[in-house]
Amino acid sequence: AGNHLWNKTYGTGNDDRAYSLVQTSDGGYAIAGYVTFSGPNLKDFWLVKTDPVGNHMWNKTYGGANDDWGSSLIRTSDGGYAIAGYTNRNLNYNFWLVKTDVAGNMVWNRTFGGPNSDGALSVIQTSEGGYALAGYTNSYGAGVYDMLLVKTDSTGNHLWNKTYGGAGSDGAWSLVQTVDGGYALAGYTYSYGA
Distance of alpha carbon 161 from its chain centroid, rounded? Predict the structure, then answer.
């Protein structure tokens, strides 16, 4: 009925944000976003695991010397997690996909993108066990920014990518696999419509 039951906070006292949430097999929750350690430019992917009433169980961080933002979280078929977002490498952002085990330990990670800014905002595990990521790109496509769809195999190796958009700025916020095996992307456009 939408009545408030409980709430919990997690963080360092700096700029920490959650962008995605899943319920876990034990009835708890896993939350992904970013954590800021100190200053404005030290953000890392952050994964927080709780029990069923939101009590903190463990957390993990993933990232390098520059900013890394986690945007989308899923539970994977092996019981682990996949987090997609963007990572700052050489002063430009790229798609970043991090795969973990059930305890949040990183198993592998992959980056995708070009010489300009690209960011992943949604990830799914596909029917054959690979991954699909959607977001925005300034490196490829027809416009200032376009939607970018990246497909990988089960260990995150790049298989193909496609862009969608027009002359303006376009990007994808959400992605699903459809019953015919294709994909549907939803987001925003400055190229079409009113």
Answer: 16
Contacts of 176 (CB under 8 A, 6+ apart): 124, 183, 184
pLDDT, tens only, 7-36: 999 999 899 999 999 999 999 999 999 999
Using the structure block, give the residue that is written with the tokens 């933002």. 69
* Tokens representing residue 104 in the block: 């949040």
| Positive/negative CA dihedral, 61, 44, 171, 95 | negative
Q: Specify whether the CB–CB gap between 19 and 31 falls below 8 A.
A: no
Cα gap 123→112, rounded to integer Å: 13
Among residues 121, 116, 173, 174, the alpha carbon closest in space to that of 145 is found at 116
- Listed in sequence order, the residues at least 6 apart from 2 whose beta carbon sits closer than 8 Å to its beta carbon are none
Structure tokens at 8: 């919990």
Please name every residue paired with 170 in a beta bridge, in sequence order, or none if there are none.
189
How many Cβ atoms from other residues are within 10 Å of residue 127's Cβ?
A: 9
